[in-house]
Amino acid sequence: MANTSVVLYHYDASPFSTKVKNMLLVKGIPHKLVAVPIQLPRPEITDLLGLTYRRIPIVAIGNDIYCGTDLIASVLERRFPSAAGYKPLFPPRAGGGRTDATLAKLLDRYWVGDALFSLLANSLPYAKFDAKFIEDRQQWRGGKIDAKALAEKQGHRSSAIASHLALIEEQLADGRQWLLDTESIGLVDVSAQVFFTWARLFKNLREIFSADAFPQTLAWIDRVAKHIKEAQKSNAATPEKLTAEDAAKLIASASHEDEKSVGFEAVEAARLSVKLGDMVSVCPTDSGKVPTIGRLLALNREESVVEIKGKAGIFRCHFPRLEFAVQPTQPTAKL
């Protein structure tokens, strides 16, 4: 595992990119960075890798490309385990209790990634953005962005965000250091802190983060930030910047993980009307609904794996099962 390069495709304004950067830092995984544009087109991904999935970030480990930050978290934990000297994203409870990995995954995916992110994304100052950016985000959302209507409802969103902060305050009231009372920082801490820190950059949300109302929450936000900063100073995971061309060559020439690590659930395949080796479409069902077409190599209840081809070579692309549709399709001329 130590000889397998990890490459993160990102852009700085993306909180999801920051989340994955911080996961890599917390775990102490050396990695490389490829900067991509904040909006389409992204030929670094669509052309060189042949990946039409439009969300950022994506992470390549060797020849395997992973989409979806929830799947990326699980894969980093599996492929870079504590037994090999890496820090855990799913640590046990303080005092030697069990590991609540499933709870952490659910909170990360549906509380932070859906409920909280939706409130924050709708609080962006869309009236200040240019038409090209708005059009790109409308395509991503699958609907019109009405900046005036969103601004008129900001008070309701701000109140809802305050309610989320109140839940954090309640969770931390017993003096615990981390949200799930773990013996060290965990995925939910990393994920939630990124989005609350992002929110504090918004002028229309700053007043919500009151030290009088949420003292424990603000202390926790600072505690996570300090932990991330210390991880950066340790140099254990100092990132190296790559050009898109060099990254694509590196990934194309690398080996892939045996598909047996994912396996093939015949029952699930039958439910989806697909078979091993079929050409399939894998597409998000919530936003950024751009399908990726590839040959189905593996499928279980957590992820699907398809083979794709870009200008730089052939790659194996992994997608989460939750909130992604896998459907049979016909091969394209490119493949």
Describe the structure.
It is a single chain. The chain is built from 11 helices and 10 strands. It is α/β, with parallel strands linked by helices and 335 residues long. The protein folds into 2 domains: 6-86 and 237-328, 3-Layer(aba) Sandwich (Glutaredoxin); 101-227, Glutathione S-transferase Yfyf (Class Pi), Chain A, domain 2 (Up-down Bundle). It has a 10-stranded mixed β-sheet. α1 runs parallel beside α3 (69-79).
Task: Describe the protein's topology.
Elements: E1 6-10, H1 15-27, E2 32-35, H2 43-46, E3 58-61, E4 64-67, H3 69-79, H4 101-121, H5 131-141, H6 147-152, H7 154-171, H8 187-199, H9 215-233, E5 240-241, H10 244-253, H11 266-272, E6 279-284, E7 292-299, E8 303-310, E9 313-320, E10 324-328
Parallel strand pairs: 1-2, 2-5, 4-9
Antiparallel strand pairs: 1-3, 3-4, 6-7, 6-10, 7-8, 8-9
